[in-house]
Every structure is written in structure tokens, then in C-alpha cells.
Write a structure and sequence with these properties.
about 250 residues, alpha/beta, TIM Barrel, eight-stranded parallel barrel, 10 helices, 8 strands, binds 1,3-dihydroxyacetonephosphate
């Protein structure tokens, strides 16, 4: 069975109540894109409202992070169960901005992915090397360590997002050949750890995806969709990217 592509918009710390119009435009456009799953990951403040607005549409709503535990004295944190309760269907874990600005380790990311599974959310587990790691020839080794430590055991019921840190928000992207190489490496890793079932696991590419490069980057072998930051804030751009699979 072929993997259905997933185009996911990570709004990061952007969006106010007034952004509901952008979601409406995304929902309207997604109706015409039967060949691709579309998800929007707004900030937590918009999650419940967006989930209610998107119910019955082709757009699913997800969250950008979760705590590993279900409840407790953790001021400011949000559990996977709470996200599910608010209408989320998925959660991003281990985004490089969480790893770098909040010191999240592979073990913490794995615990969050397990929390997602416990709550019935699909986790999108993010990995990716820095420029310095790539320049030193360590990109694969970094990915292996992150995959080893961040992915939960058992079933491959998550998606992986390969987001080279140096490509995020920079306008720089790897070549299609580099992407094929890294995604092939990730697929191999998944197959050796999870067996045949890993053929169903989606591997997304993220980092400076925009309408002008989407066709080139997203049709590479073992690229099953995209995790999009900046370009997902504008419905027209986001839909133009999703159109690659439409
Ligand atoms: P940009 O698309 O803005 O480069 O961000 C990518 C990203 O970090 C998505 O999670």
C-alpha cells in the first residue's frame, strides 16, 4: 500500500484569533486536494477553536509540543491528553527550536512521542543536523543518534520530519540528491528497527519549502510530504505547495 502524502503547516509562534480566515481558506483549498493529507499546527491558544472550525473538513489540526506526563504540577505545560481533548489529532515533538531553545534531549523527545501515542495523537518526530555537523561530515551520524534516542519502541505509528537546522527559515535547502540520500538513510533505519511496517511510516522534509521549490524537493524518493514553517502562514502559498501532490 502506498503512503499517502502529508503536507503539514507549523505556524510556530504566529497567529491570533483573526487568523481564522486563513484556516478557512486552507480548508476551502484542501477540498480540491484529494490526494494529500493536510494538517495545520497553530499555536496552543488557537488549537481548540481551529479544531472546532475544521471538524468535518479535509484539514486536521495538531499541536506544536506536549509534556510527557498526562497531568501534574508543571506550570505552563500542556499534556498530550489536553491536546487531544482540545481536538488535536497530532503533535510535533522534538522540533529543532525546542531542542535548541528549550534544551530538549532525545530522551525527552521520545517520552513526548510516547505521550502522544498514549493520548491517541500521531507524533511527528523531528530530526536534523546543524550546518557545523554537516560540514564536519557527521550528518548521518547525528541523524542516527537522534533516531535511536527519539523514536519510541514498538510500532512505527509516528511520522518522521527531516529538518536540517541550517535550512529552517534560511532560504537554503539541500539538493534533491542530498534529500534522497538522507531520506533513504532514515527509511533504512526505520526498516531495520521496525521491520516491514516501516514501509508505511511517512518521512517528511522540512526547511525553506516554498511554492517555487516544492515540486523539486517533494517528489524525491522517500519524501512523503513536508513540514512547512513560514510558507504555511499564507493559505495561497501553503496550498500551492500541497498542490504538488494534489
Ligand atoms: P521554514 O519552512 O520557515 O523554513 O520552517 C521549517 C520548519 O521548521 C517547520 O517545522
Amino acid at each position: 500500500m502506498a503512503r499517502s502524502p502529508l503536507v503539514a503547516g507549523n505556524w510556530k509562534m504566529n497567529g491570533l484569533l483573526a487568523s481564522a480566515g486563513e484556516l478557512q481558506k486552507i480548508m476551502a483549498g484542501a477540498e480540491k486536494l484529494a490526494g494529500v493529507d493536510v494538517m495545520v499546527f497553530p499555536p496552543a491558544t488557537l488549537l481548540a477553536g481551529f479544531a472546532a472550525a475544521a471538524r468535518g473538513s479535509r484539514v486536521a489540526i495538531g499541536a506544536q509540543d506536549c509534556h510527557a506526563l498526562a497531568a501534574g504540577a508543571f506550570t505552563g505545560d500542556i499534556s498530550a491528553e489536553m491536546l487531544k481533548d482540545a481536538g488535536a489529532q497530532a503533535v510535533i515533538v522534538g522540533h529543532s527550536e525546542r531542542r535548541h531553545y528549550h534544551g530538549e534531549t532525545d530522551v525527552m523527545v521520545r517520552d513526548k512521542a510516547l505521550a502522544a501515542r498514549r493520548a491517541g495523537l500521531m507524533a511527528i518526530v523531528c530530526i536534523g543536523e546543524t550546518q557545523a555537523e554537516r560540514d564536519a561530515g557527521h550528518a548521518r551520524a547525528v541523524l542516527r543518534t537522534q533516531l535511536d534516542g527519539s523514536l519510541p519502541d514498538g510500532t512505527a505509528d509516528f511520522a518522521v520530519a527531516y529538518e536540517p537546522v541550517w535550512a529552517i527559515g534560511s532560504g537554503l535547502t539541500p539538493t534533491p540528491r542530498d534529500i534522497a540520500d538522507m531520506h533513504g538513510f532514515i527509511r533504512q533505519f526505520l526498516s531495520s528497527r521496525y521491520g516491514e511496517a516501516a514501509q508505511q511510516t511517512r518521512i517528511l522534509y522540512g526547511g525553506s519549502v516554498k511554492p517555487s521549490n516544492a515540486a523539486e524537493l517533494l517528489t524525491v524518493d522517500n519524501v512523503d510530504g513536508a513540514l512547512i514553517g513560514g510558507a504555511s502562514l499564507k493559505a495561497e502559498e501553503f496550498l500551492a505547495i500541497a498542490q504538488v501532490y494534489g
